[in-house]
Amino acid sequence: MIYKLLKSGKQEGFEKGEKMPISSIGAALGVICIAAGITATALTHYPAPALVASAIGLYLMFAIRVADQWEKVAVLRLGRYIGLRGPGMFHIIPIVDSLSRFVDQRVRVASVKAESALTRDTVPVNVDAIVFWVVWNAEKSILEVEDFIGAITLSAQTALRESIGRHHLAQMITERETLGQELQRILDEKTNPWGITVQSVEIRDVSIPHELEDAMSRQAQAERERQARIILGQAETEIADNFSKAALTYQDNPVALHLRAMNMLYEAIKERGSMVIVPSSAVETMGLGGMLATSALAGNRPVEGRL
After folding, report:
1. N or C, which end of the chain has less CB nearby within 10 Å?
2. Does the domain formed by 108-208 have CATH 3.30.479.30?
3. 144-153 per-position pLDDT tens digit
4. What is the value of pTM for the model shown?
């Protein structure tokens, strides 16, 4: 089974038992040798140069291999591991040697998704995450696990579902970074024996059903109203406490009470056209009757003079 398609004149990897690929450099050397043999045969009229050059050319086609800068590959000689090759050009013995698939040692990304997973408070959620991982030991990744790419993807999905079940919905929405760090630690412990390191896990999206979104919106609105009522009640309590303290102060100092009452009355009537209703008990207590009468007479005298 072919793992990867032919790219830039070279196939990147095949399973054991498949036909070995031909590199661009090996193909070029093989063509040159065959062309030189045919030319020599044409000049000498002997078939031997063409046969020898053709054999050498075919050998070079399958023996010369090239690995890119970020790749490594394991060489198996008669089924036994003999070492890693790459990056660059290397040589194998056709038929005797076989290659594992080429291992990319750059940072790679795997996208995982958990659908309809239940949180700790039994809320179904859909979670999308991305896993950044890198192969730090190509030998282990080739010899210890059959398909490390599929293993990482399945392990990430399983760990994501387990982590969702241990957290409440509010934690998953507000503490995505913490959830990603927990997943990274779990996956790294599992993949390190394979020669793979999980660098980070990022939670891209946490979605819930629309019906539940409406219910949560109503719940949040009710919670805000409750908080507003609590704050209003606390304000009323503080005002009552201040009034109680002021009453104790005015109880022992009637002059201060009269001054405060007069100030309040002045603040109420200083606006033109305003009308204030004062209880008779307050008028008698503060002695405002005579003062108001005097103010009224003073206001009427200029009128009488004009008459």
Report:
1. C
2. yes
3. 888 888 889 8
4. 0.61
